[in-house]
Structure formats: C-alpha cells, structure tokens
C-alpha cells in the first residue's frame, strides 16, 4: 500500500505527541524529508506548544515542580494572612487608652522634704511624666498623662503604682494633667500659669504625612505602570515598588482605621511597619497568582 499524504497527516498527531511507534516515526520522517506540504503541517502543529520534544518524564517533573511551587506559595500566603490578623489584634490589645481627667485617677501627697508622691489608681497601667522650666516661673511645670492597655486590664492585674515626681527635691510650680483627647489640660497642683487661656496638648500628625507620602508614591508608581504596561521588565519592577506604599496604606488601615492623628505616634508607626511586611508578601503572591491565571487563560484562547 502506498503512503499518501492523508495517511501521514493522520499519523502526525501521534508523531508530535511522541506516542507513535518507532516504525511509524521512521515512516513519517521518511515522508517529511520528501514532502514540503506535510513538513509545513508538522511545523504548524508544533508551533503553539513552543515546547521542544519533551519526554513524558521531564514534562511530569515540570508539572510537579509547578504544583509544589503553587503549594508553597499558598502556604506562605495563608501564614501571612494569619500574621496580619495576629499583629492587628495585638496592636488593638496593646493600644493605650488615655483617661480623661477624673479626681480619683491620681492622688498627690506632699512630703515634708518637699518631694511630691503621685499615686495612680489601679485602672492605670501606664504613665508618662514630663517637666520643663517655664520662663515666668521659679519652679518646674510637670505634665502627667496616664493610660490603660486592654491587654493588661484583662490578663495582667496591675497593682497600684506610685512615683515621686521630684526625687531631688526640685521646686514645683504646677502640675498639669495632660488629657490627650483634645480637651484642655487640667491643673492638678500649684499655680495655674495659663489662667484663662489654658493649654491643649495636640495629637501628633506625623502619621497623616506618612499616609500622604505613601499615597503620592502609589499614584506615581501607578502612572509609570500605566505608561509602561507593555514593557514587561519595567512593569515587573514598578509593580514591586508600588506594593510598598500600598502595603503601608493597608497597614495604616489595619492599625489606625481611618484616623491619622495619634497621641502615640511612634508606637502606631512601628505597629504599621510590622504589619506591612506580611501585607507586602500577600500582595506579591496574589499578584503572582493573578498573572499566572491570566497567562493560562490567554494560552487557552490561543489554542
Ligand atoms: Zn505529504
């Protein structure tokens, strides 16, 4: 029987998939060396795969590696999501709640040697005392702020704490309670230096600047991304840079919600940096998954 082009065309799929017997392979190759039409057909059939004639074993290995990579990435993704939740929960549990002033919060006792003992009630889990020498006074002005931390309230029961404000007997003109809620500071001892005017301790706004900075950086990266969306190399780099300010913004949202002013800016900033790391990893892995699924879809359409 003569081998027609039609017979060879029927055999080509088997030949391309490497499942033809040696005899068939020899027949196909013999024909293809003589027939340009069938040779062309064979090349076209090989084109969309773009794969060199792999053996089944290497194909399987590749598939396995791909699957295990996906598995590892999925595990990392889950760990990072858990980390974000844990860090956010810890940040809330350890966030200081500043007390508005009340009479029973702090009691002051003047000793005969001129020192003043401040005793805090048992709801207080932390305090901060600052002092400065005013221009118009003969002694120091002290400011006290106190807070409690939910974590310590539920888990560690605090005993009453007290401290001597002026262990070296410094002269004290006045002591203010620093309210940390935008209301006027309260005079709790001595002469009111700000009679009539009053002072208000303002929250730190530094976090608001960081948010603006991150948002600006994100917008710039997004614009660069839009311009170079066709250039894969630049796109890959800019995407990774873009995720940095984006993680910061999401981190801020986790720790501070929609407020940007803070009376404990340093603490909040470190909490945001801490939660930023797992968020950045989540962005990277999620983007990787997204790109792969898009690539796969395109590949299927092409076929
Ligand atoms: Zn032919």
Describe this protein's structure.
The protein is α+β, with helices and mostly antiparallel strands and 303 residues long. The protein folds into three domains: 5-53, no CATH class; 61-93 and 204-302, no CATH class; 97-190, no CATH class. It has eight helices and eight strands, in the order ααααβββββαβββααα. It has helices spanning 5-16, 22-32, 36-46, 56-93, 150-154, 206-227, 232-256, 265-302; strands spanning 97-98, 106-110, 116-120, 126-132, 140-148, 162-164, 172-177, 186-190. Strands 1, 4, 5, 7 and 8 form a five-stranded mixed beta sheet that branches. The chain has a three-stranded antiparallel beta sheet with strand order 2-3-6, with no helix packed on it. A hairpin with a 7-residue loop joins strand 4 (126-132) and strand 5. Helix 1 (5-16) packs across helix 2, helix 6 packs antiparallel against helix 7 (232-256) and helix 7 crosses helix 8. It is rod-shaped and about 125 Å long. The two termini are 35 Å apart. The relative contact order is 0.09. Zinc ion binds at residues 5, 8, 31, 35, 37-38.
